[in-house]
């Protein structure tokens, strides 16, 4: 499962809070590094979301074109058959 950008930013904020409240310098350094890593992961999650949205838009467009194409084809003149280009035989 890929982390969402919202979760990454929440973790980043948590790490920044830990760094701000840390007494020990090594804890502060580690929390700051972790916050930077979560910020980078949030950017990656944003990119994944954008790619998914583009992919979904392309899929929706293809489905819309297919529906338009199906509306354009009529029933066969033969009442025993379904759509003329599919060749379904109804009994």
Description:
With 91 residues, the protein is mostly helical. It has one domain (5-72). The protein has helices spanning 5-21, 25-72. α1 (5-21) packs antiparallel against α2. The protein is rod-shaped, with a radius of gyration of 27 Å. The model has no long low-confidence stretch (mean pLDDT 81).
Write the layout of secondary structure elements.
Layout: H1 5-21, H2 25-72
Helix pairs in contact: 1-2
SSE pattern, N- to C-terminal = HH
- Which structural class do the helices and strands define? mainly alpha
How much beta, percentage-wise?
A: under 5%
Question: The biggest beta sheet, please?
Answer: none
Number of strands: 0
Separate helix tally: 2
Overall geometric form: rod-shaped
Provide mean pLDDT, rounded: 81
Count of domain modules: 1
Q: Uncertain regions: pLDDT < 50 for 5+ in a row?
A: none
Helix content: over 70%
Tags for this entry?
91 residues; mainly alpha; 0% strand
Task: Tell me briefly what this model is.
With 91 residues, this protein is mainly α. It has helices at 5-21, 25-72.
């Amino acid at each position: 499962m890929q982390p969402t950008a919202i979760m990454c930013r929440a973790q980043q904020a948590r790490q920044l809070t830990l760094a701000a409240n840390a007494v020990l310098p090594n804890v502060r350094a580690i929390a700051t590094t972790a916050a930077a890593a979560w910020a980078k992961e949030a950017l990656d999650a944003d990119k994944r979301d954008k790619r998914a949205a583009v992919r979904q838009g392309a899929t929706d467009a293809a489905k819309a074109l297919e529906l338009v194409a199906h509306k354009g084809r009529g029933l066969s003149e033969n009442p025993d058959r379904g759509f003329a280009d599919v060749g379904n035989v109804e009994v």
